[in-house]
Amino acid sequence: MIFDKFKVFIPIILANLFLFYFLDTKEIILFFFFEILLILSFIYFIKKSEKSSIKKQTDKKENKDLTLSIYESFIDKLDNPIFIIGKDFKIISQNLKSQEIYEDQSSNDISTIIRDYDFIQNLDEYKKNNEFNRFTWSKNLPDRKIFNTEILNFSEFLIIIITDITNQKLIEEKQTIYLDDLTHELKTPLSTIIGYLETIDFNNYTIEENKNFLKIINSKTFEIKNLIDQILKLSETNIANKEILKINIQEILKSTIASYDNLFKKSGISFQIDIESANNKVTSFTSMELEVVINNLLSNALKYTPKGKTVSLKTKITSENDLSIIIQDQGIGIPQKDLSRLTERFFRVDQSRNNQTGGHGLGLTIANHILSKNGCVLEISSELGKGSIFKFNLKLS
Ligand code: ADP
After folding, report:
1. pTM
2. Among 226, 229, 304, which residue has the most ligand 1 atoms within 8 Å of its CB, making it the best to mutate?
């Protein structure tokens, strides 16, 4: 190396030798002296420049280490698993969350740690053309999970951030199912309305027949209105931050059930009420919503109980601070396998009973939403062909 730098002196030395031929001894010594001085200063400058280049390199390395350690301390505070990897895709560092999930994997290739097919495929794609830096992948075992991966490209290394988006995806899927169900619920009565509107014809049908068509159109229009009302109620219970009021339980029950006396009588169902234990009992509940719960439960009891049977509404003190409200019917009952699904949006036990009653499977969803918002749990028990019991506890104030 050093010899290379001295090569430059060879022609000068040769020129000196040529000059010596014309100079005397004194002049040669003086000349040598200057030349040695020149060489020493040259060596000095070479050494100095080498030192400064080594220093630059170590500074650069130190800077890189410093940047890395800043990132390391930052990513440790984040809740997602994060890897810092070299351009060769080997792990340089991991945050705490990633060590918790994948253990310490220093120096291993990232694709040997996350071995899911989707992830490796996407990573290979990235290695090939560096084109996209965000991809979604899923893993099916032991349970299905969906992840989002983001690759941040820095000059010395890459940062891989993995985010679990399973819940978000589930919500999106549920939203899509909800919209599909809603569209279906609206389309069914609408197609009936359209069908009968096209059928109405005063030339070919009698006035009586046409009147009958109009009756059907009328009832289907009400069905749609009823559905829209229920949807609005559901979103209201979800979104609106209703005021919590101290309410007199017995008064609320009395005013809500007043209109049902007549409806049960008309349907030939005996309606028994025992709400004595609720006398002067007060609870905190979201404004006007206990009425909605009782309404939905009683209207179901009315819909699903045949003539000649009994429906009852009772209150019972279950502890010093608890009062239960129990609505029991001797109706058609609900199969055990469906009990846990009753509070799902648009869930109905079977289509045939729905055709007769015209329900949309939202009443219990709304009731359950309101109750859980108020810290209550709706308990449902039922026996097919014998009847059902709907029960919840109110905390007394
Ligand atoms: P719907 O408007 O269809 O009645 P709900 O959410 O109130 O919707 O009820 C969901 C389903 O649960 C109903 O379709 C019905 O099959 C069943 N169900 C609810 N209450 C009763 C009951 N008291 N007796 C029998 N089945 C019931």
Report:
1. 0.64
2. 304
